Amino acid sequence: MALPIILDTDPGIDDAVALAAALFSPQLDLRLVTTVAGNVSLEKTTRNALQLLHFWQSEVPVAQGAATPLLRPLRDAASVHGESGLDGYDFIAHQRQVLTTPAFQAMRDLLMTSPEPVTLVAIGPLTNIALLLTHYPECAFNIRQLVLMGGSAGRGNFTPSAEFNMAIDPDAAACVFRSGLDIVMCGLDVTHKAVLTPEFICTLPALNASGRMLHALFSHYRGGSMSTGLRMHDLCAIAYLVTPELFTLQHCFVAVETQGEYTAGATVVDLDHRLGKPANARVAMDINVEGFREWVAQMVKDCP
């Protein structure tokens, strides 16, 4: 039976690929998409999510989430994804609307009525997840797992010490890692290795409409380059759900720095158990890159 999931996202070019995988992997049952400000503003991430679902003719509902981090002003990644967040492709106009309830409320409603536990997949800043857990802690009983893209056991990619999603809302991330949820963290330790080759990228337009659309987006993506390969950060969270055997995980304690002048958003990953605290996450430390590429190739072929 397919695994029910909620995808919390800030599309974003690599988010678009992750959404495709969530929609078209037969192992997954995407029940709800929620949007958050991150790669670009909330207005743009929500518009992008609706455009992508319309492109794929999917009826999965969309709920709009937080427009700003919990306590800090928003910083975005338009320099990586383009001003729209999905530069490079002209999507067809549509009349789709978001749900009338905000994201954390829509998540709660789904969780409290689902007959089976639901997996949360968070590939943007963790603001919506923190709001859910703060306002509705009673729904945690029906959260099977939280799989997130974010953090790093080493250096950062937005600041010297912090990965982008964690750096945008450190306070939300700290709240989530204190929550007691079953957390799998797919951070830069694996996402920097999850690179699609130029040779594969060149084959996309001939595959199908999805391949043509993704190729157009990739030509505007600055997560690498078309000539050297592109890093698929967010796709790793979906890849873990579908093909966990590709990942090497380590149980450890993870905390998120919120106070440091230069280190806010840094994930302190206690790989050697020096802090004496119980593990609160499984951290992906390695990935079978060839296996990942084979899975991506098949996934895109399975898209319309």
Could you characterize the architecture of this molecule?
- This protein is of the alpha/beta class and 304 residues long.
- It has one domain: Ribonucleoside hydrolase-like (Inosine-uridine Nucleoside N-ribohydrolase, Chain A, Alpha-Beta Complex), CATH 3.90.245.10.
- The protein has twelve helices and twelve strands.
- The chain has helices at 13-24, 42-55, 78-81, 103-113, 127-135, 164-168, 170-177, 188-191, 198-203, 209-218, 235-242, 289-302, and strands at residues 3-9, 28-35, 62-64, 118-122, 143-149, 183-186, 195-196, 224-225, 229-231, 247-256, 267-270, 281-287.
- The strands form two sheets. Strands 3-2-1-4-5-6-12-10-11 form a nine-stranded mixed sheet, sandwiched between helices. Strands 7-9-8 form a three-stranded antiparallel sheet.
- Strand 2, helix 2 (42-55) and strand 3 (62-64) form a beta-alpha-beta unit.
- Helix 1 runs parallel beside helix 11.
- The two termini are 22 Å apart.
- The model has no long low-confidence stretch (mean pLDDT 94).
